[in-house]
Amino acid sequence: MTVLITGAAGGVARALLPGIADLDPRLTDRVPGPGIVAGDLASPSFARSVCEGVDAVVHLAADPDPGHSWSDLRGPNADALVAVLDACARAAVPRLVLASSLHAVGGYRDAGDDRVPDEVSPFPCCVYGATKAFAEALGRAYAARWDMRVVCLRLGGVQPAPPARSWLPGWLGHDDLRSLVRAALTAEVSYGVYNATSANTPAVFGLDGSRAALGYAPVQDSASYTVPDDTPPPSTGLPRWGLLHRS
After folding, report:
1. Across-strand partners of 150?
2. Are the CB atoms for 141 and 188 separated by under 8 Å?
3. Predicted confidence band at 234 (pLDDT cuts at 50, 70, 90)?
4. C-alpha closest to that of 36 among 44, 48, 47, 25
5. Which of 123, 132, 154, 195 has CB 3.0 to 4.6 Å from 205, enough for a Cys bridge?
6. CA-to-CA distance for 70 and 75, rounded, in angstroms?
7. What is the DSSP letter of 222?
8. Per CATH, which fold does 3-224 belong to?
């Protein structure tokens, strides 16, 4: 399997790559680096060039800052997404793993919900979360129209260990990230949206769907770490449950 990894210079991709080295990964990012084909995925011609001849795409490229405005987010989170989906359709790429975010459902937590199942409809907590809800919706449209398998993963905070208390519910450890993406690349799913955290205690973000449909079996738990309180406390203008930055 030849897999294109977009956003290959970002933190999530750097955490993922050691776990999929055997899958013949191809790398692209706006930032040049070893083995990276550099360019802007918002350019349809560039997106088509890097998607040609691959068996799957793991689309991680995005601006991950929940504090950014639509003007910051439109290019990397909307225009690039459309170009990649179009390129996959033109090249008949059979499988696409889209990086969504728990920010797409963060509004439930901000409204006081203690449990967010993975089958709930989007409730973004910020403009960034809304761009990820858009990615989920557009992915579904392409899956139906082009007979493409599309798996959307609502990624939590990807770090080797949770850095602060607010990260505990939504933390996604590196080992679990790697096993989850591998599962998404092989699952017999036409389209699906799944929470993507480790097996954290308490289980705020439900993983029933990702376990059942993808065969995801997380082994890490944020409760096993001793973490400091947030300093300063998360702003009231941003999600108060962690995930302030993923990369």
Report:
1. 96, 191
2. no
3. low
4. 25
5. 195
6. 9
7. G
8. Rossmann fold (3.40.50)
